[in-house]
């Protein structure tokens, strides 16, 4: 438990420091192990347990170390008001067995030489957030038992030469100088620290780094600086590595755009170059020749848009972890299908928050084919809106698949049945309205341990009833990582678990129901037409008869007119006393205006 308290305390302090501006690190009380029973001690200004004493954050009212129980080996005295430590007697009230001491944010300006001499087992010292200069820090660097020294957020400038010449810190020492103002560093300055294990220089506006031989250095943190070039790692005259035992290198949030040969990092296992300005990754950029045992590579959130990833860019059989997320990278246009050739041992691949909109199943198969041992694949928020039963059919060893936030509207039957080792599947925040029984076979359902389909716009109908039952029967399987729930979009304020529909109403399938409804509507339409026709049948027959008779009469008349030539069109039968009217009225009207030839007895 004591070791756990130590780790929690140290981690909490560093995280709080990183989140604060310069000279304002850690303004809140440190949170130690929440399971440790702590009781008020020393006039309620501290909280003590068997091994720990938390005397932090007393609003400047505590300017000396109080008398503490002899069993205390972890002391948090941050956020008080010490101003200076004037000698070894300053810590007379603390056990000589103290291992962990936190003096963050105390306004310290001076530490007398030998002030920590009485502590024979002190291994961790947090003294950042104060106003100490390098001269005053000599008392810190002379403690022979220290394994971790945190001087972050102290307003320190460039490290002067000779500051470490008289100090030989113990084996595997970790020196934290982050959030200062160092700007440029000649590594020859820290060369006297032959046992230096870790050097963290995060956020120092560091634009220039002169290399030096540091055989013990295993962790170099250069996060969030102003480095333009990848650090020199080879001695030009001897071709020997400057950092032969370096295993972890943080270069994220700089302005580096390429890696030039030679690279001499024979033991590097972790490399983070995310949030830089890389645009091109040519063949063998991360090859085993450059990085023989590199296992973890981080390339997330580049500041500039990527333009090309060539075949074999990740040609390194040592790689087991690769993160390329948050780059808005169009894999259909900018990534060669053979980019991962030679990286056959990658087990975790982060490709989320890129673009796979126009990547076909075949393209995806070719892209991932060089990684047969892939176990975790992240494709979240990647515009992968359409999947087929073949999309993931080649991923036979994948155990975890992340597809959330992709706009997937339809899950085909057997979409994941070709993945015999799949245990975790996350499909939340898509556009899935229903899940048919055939999507997950019985074997697939039995091997899944975690399934998240929350945040989808489910349509609660007969088609969803089986899925609702599965959801109710397997509460441990279905997760809701973002707290969005499983809700019916067509039923207001109704969750999928609460949705109820009589099963008798669902005895017929939707296709059958639609077919029956269509047939009934068609029959009703024809019956309506038949009723109208039957009611007006005699009228209709008469109309039809008249139409047919008129057409027949016209056809007969026309036929006779074409076959017989008549001299007269009209024969006029009249009485003799009507002759005058016929000549005066009838003839002009019919012959002159209408063009008919009349037969008049007296004339013709």
UniProtKB/TrEMBL annotation:
The chain crosses the membrane at residues 515-536. One of its GO terms (biological process) is signal transduction. GO terms for molecular function: signaling receptor activity. It is found in: Membrane. GO terms for cellular component: plasma membrane. Keywords: Glycoprotein, Leucine-rich repeat, Membrane, Receptor, Repeat, Signal, Transmembrane, Transmembrane helix. InterPro entries: Leu-rich_rpt, Leu-rich_rpt_typical-subtyp, LRR_dom_sf, TIR_dom, Toll_tir_struct_dom_sf. PROSITE patterns: LRR, TIR. Residues 1-19 form the signal peptide. Residues 566-604 form the TIR domain. It is a single-pass membrane protein. PANTHER family: PROTEIN TOLL-RELATED, TOLL-LIKE RECEPTOR. Belongs to the Toll-like receptor family. This is Toll-like receptor 33. It comes from Littorina littorea (Common periwinkle).
């Amino acid at each position: 438990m004591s070791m756990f308290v130590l780790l929690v305390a140290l981690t909490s302090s560093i995280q709080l420091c990183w989140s604060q501006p310069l000279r304002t690190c850690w303004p809140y009380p440190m949170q130690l192990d929440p399971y440790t029973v702590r009781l008020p001690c020393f006039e309620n200004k501290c909280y003590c347990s068997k091994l720990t004493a938390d005397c932090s954050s007393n609003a400047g009212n505590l300017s000396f170390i109080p008398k503490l129980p002899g069993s205390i080996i972890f002391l948090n005295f941050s956020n008080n008001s010490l101003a200076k430590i004037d000698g070894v007697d300053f810590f007379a009230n603390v056990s000589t067995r103290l291992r962990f001491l936190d003096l963050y944010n105390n306004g310290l300006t001076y530490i007398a030489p030998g002030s920590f001499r009485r502590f024979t087992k002190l291994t961790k010292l947090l003294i950042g957030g104060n106003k100490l200069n390098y001269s005053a820090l000599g008392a810190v660097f002379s403690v022979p038992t220290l394994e971790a020294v945190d001087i972050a957020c102290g307003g320190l400038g460039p490290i002067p030469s000779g500051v470490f010449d008289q100090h030989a810190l113990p084996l595997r020492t970790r020196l934290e100088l982050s959030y200062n103002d160092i700007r440029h560093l000649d590594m020859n300055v820290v060369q006297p620290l032959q046992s230096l294990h870790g050097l963290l220089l995060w956020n120092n506006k560091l634009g220039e780094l002169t290399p030096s031989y540091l055989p013990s250095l295993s962790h170099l943190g250069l996060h969030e600086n102003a480095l333009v070039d990848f650090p020199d790692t080879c001695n030009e005259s001897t071709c020997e590595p400057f950092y032969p035992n370096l295993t972890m290198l943080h270069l994220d949030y700089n302005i580096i755009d390429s890696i030039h040969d030679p690279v001499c990092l024979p033991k590097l296992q972790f490399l983070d170059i995310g949030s830089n300005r890389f645009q091109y990754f040519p063949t063998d950029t991360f090859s085993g020749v450059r990085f023989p045992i590199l296992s973890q590579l981080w390339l997330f959130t580049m500041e500039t848009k990527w333009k090309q990833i060539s075949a074999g860019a990740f040609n390194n059989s040592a790689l087991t972890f690769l993160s390329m997320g948050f780059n808005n990278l169009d894999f259909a246009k900018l990534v060669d299908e053979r980019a991962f050739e030679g990286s056959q041992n990658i087990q975790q691949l982060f490709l989320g928050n890129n673009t796979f909109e126009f990547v076909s199943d075949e393209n995806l198969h070719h892209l991932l084919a060089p990684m047969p041992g892939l176990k975790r694949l992240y494709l979240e928020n990647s515009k992968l809106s359409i999947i087929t039963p073949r999309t993931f059919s080649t991923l036979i060893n994948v155990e975890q698949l992340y597809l959330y936030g992709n706009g997937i509207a339809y899950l085909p039957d057997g979409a994941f049945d070709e993945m015999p080792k799949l245990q975790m599947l996350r499909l939340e925040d898509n556009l899935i309205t229903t899940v048919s029984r055939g999507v997950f076979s019985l074997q697939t359902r039995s091997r899944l341990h975690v399934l998240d389909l929350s945040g989808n716009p489910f349509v609660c109908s007969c088609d969803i009833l089986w899925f609702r039952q599965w959801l109710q029967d397997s509460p441990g399987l279905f997760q809701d990582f973002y707290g969005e729930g499983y809700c019916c979009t067509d039923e207001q304020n109704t969750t999928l678990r609460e949705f109820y529909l009589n099963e008798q109403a669902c005895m017929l399938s939707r296709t059958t129901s639609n077919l029956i409804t269509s047939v009934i509507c068609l029959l009703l339409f024809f019956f309506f037409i038949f009723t109208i026709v039957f009611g007006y049948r005699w009228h209709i027959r008469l109309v039809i008869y008249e139409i047919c008779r008129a057409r027949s009469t016209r056809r007969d008349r026309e036929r006779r007119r074409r076959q017989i030539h008549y001299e007269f069109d009209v024969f006029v039968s009249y009485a003799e006393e009507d002759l005058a009217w016929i000549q005066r009225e009838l003839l002009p009207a019919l012959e002159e205006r209408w063009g008919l030839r009349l037969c008049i007895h007296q004339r013709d």
